[in-house]
Design goal:
One of its GO terms (biological process) is lipoprotein transport. With 204 residues, the chain is mainly beta. The chain has helices at 23-33, 109-113, 119-122, and strands at residues 36-46, 52-62, 66-73, 77-82, 85-90, 95-100, 123-131, 134-141, 148-156, 159-167, 172-182, 200-203. Mean pLDDT is 83; it is low at 1-19.
Length: 204
């Protein structure tokens, strides 16, 4: 199974410096002011045995509930949240998987970041020590049926720079964001998806 497929069955968060008590508040304020976010990403998945796989692509988020996560290498895959449903297209298999967005909010980094501003309703949040010149917040799901055991979000100023996720399969997913543009006006077509002709569509 490709590591990148973990995102829908399933995309994120020490050194000696002390954690700032207001780091959680800072992250909440950042998310509260975040309307859109676009850029490139590099994702590294480390499985239980230490084997790694790296992929990269582009992303776009429009809160609440809309996102586009496009893997380009090593395998193409597209995930689109249109505000109602989440669509996963695998061109190699010519298959599309559809899931209601309220069932997918905790299943991927894009879905998590594109949700509402009340992250604390679904996660217990705490500040971590600063590292790599970033402030860090750890989020642990309040419900036991979440795909992730914990998520760590690294941010600086008005930008989310990294995410680290530990899932129930013993895998760690690290995502680094770059070429970030926030609160622009992305093309609305980015958040629409029509299954290709002849594709096998599976609704979950």
């Amino acid at each position: 199974m490709r590591f990148c497929r973990l995102f829908l069955p399933l995309f994120l968060l020490l050194c000696a410096l002390p954690a700032h008590a207001d780091t959680v508040t800072d992250l909440q304020a950042l998310l509260g002011s975040l309307r859109t976010m676009q850029g490139e990403f590099t994702q590294t998945v480390v499985n239980r045995s230490g084997k790694t796989q790296t992929s990269n692509g582009s992303f776009a988020i429009q809160r609440p509930g809309k996102f586009r996560w496009h893997y380009r290498k090593p395998y193409e895959q597209l995930i689109v949240g249109d505000g109602k449903d989440v669509w996963l297209h695998d061109p190699d298999l010519n298959q599309v998987t559809v899931k209601q967005i309220d069932k997918a909010l905790d299943s991927s980094p894009a879905a998590l970041l594109s949700g509402d501003n009340h992250l604390e309703k679904r996660y217990r949040m705490k500040a971590l020590q600063s590292r790599d010149n970033l402030n860090w917040v750890e989020a642990i799901p309040r419900q036991g049926d979440n795909n992730f055991n914990r998520v760590r979000i690294g941010f600086s100023g008005k930008e989310i720079r990294r995410m680290e996720l530990e899932d129930s399969f013993g895998q760690t997913t690290r995502i680094e964001f770059r070429m970030i543009v926030v609160n622009s006006k992305p093309d609305a077509a980015l958040f629409r998806f029509t299954p290709p002709k002849g594709a096998d569509v599976v609704r979950q």
